[in-house]
Specification:
Radius of gyration: 18 Å
Shape: elongated
Oligomer: single chain
Order of helices and strands: HHEHEEEEEEHEEE
Length: about 250
């Protein structure tokens, strides 16, 4: 029990680290179309649904609920200042996205899930849903193989309308208390300027971008019902995620 509490405290600490670094997305000046395209690609991949789970299904009675924090490296050098502009000249080095995640197992190797994210002291909110299907459910000697479709929608930011649709496939193999996994897929990102950004850049048109991504992770089960998952993804930028969840 003490170990379980310690792990949850660690994740809550990461949650608070995200809160401390929080800033509103509020544009200080207009963007060129090229800058808006780059911002769309990086913001879209940052806010897309993370995997953070092995490929095997939960099963018809299975349920998984927990908290997750993703840290996204932000590119903000002198020649590509769209992130500085998006954060009104005060962009962080990393964008932290704390989330609540739930998944439920259904018959036929299907899982469904939902996610909600709110970065405290900012205007960044995010919600999404997922559905996955195990092609191979995995055994003690063979790996699991799954496919997944996801959707996310940015909310709370008055200057940007952004949503993503993702598809991916992953493979995993459990070894006692450790389950490594890896996968690849793509994210379709749809964004358009609105509010103050559209006023500052009246010529901006919407962007629709296809972005490939790869990811790999490790799920640890140190205690019954408790799973700790660490994942690294690369799409437009590196993304690091940590999730603590209760599963049964």
């Amino acid at each position: 029990m003490v170990k379980r509490i310690s792990l949850l405290v660690l994740c809550l600490g990461l949650f608070m680290a995200g809160s401390a670094a929080a800033r509103d997305i509020s544009f200080s000046s207009g963007l060129t179309q090229d800058d808006f395209k780059h911002l769309t690609k990086e913001a879209g991949t940052a806010m897309a649904y993370r995997n953070t789970a092995p490929a095997e299904p939960l099963g018809i009675t299975g349920f998984d609920a927990g908290i997750e924090v993703s840290a996204v490296s932000i590119k903000k050098d002198g020649t590509n200042n769209y992130w500085q502009n998006a954060f009104n000249g005060n962009a962080p080095s990393y964008l932290y996205l704390p989330k609540i995640r739930v998944r439920k197992g259904l018959p036929f190797g299907i899982d469904v899930g939902a996610m909600y994210s709110y970065v405290p002291d900012s205007n960044i909110k995010l919600y999404g849903a997922e559905i996955s299907k195990a092609i191979l459910e995995g055994t003690t000697v063979s790996p699991a193989l799954g496919i997944r479709a996801t959707y996310t929608k940015l909310a709370g930011v008055g200057d940007l309308d952004l949503q993503t649709v993702g598809v991916d496939a992953s493979i995993s193999k459990g070894f006692v208390l450790v389950t490594p996994y890896a996968g690849a897929g793509a994210v379709w990102i749809d964004s358009k300027a609105k509010g103050n950004l559209l006023t500052l850049s009246p010529g901006l048109t919407s962007e629709k971008i296809w972005q490939p991504r790869v990811f790999g992770g490790l799920k640890l089960t140190p205690l019954p019902l408790l799973g700790i998952t660490a994942e690294v993804e690369y799409a437009a930028r590196p993304i690091y995620s940590l999730k603590a969840a209760v599963s049964f």
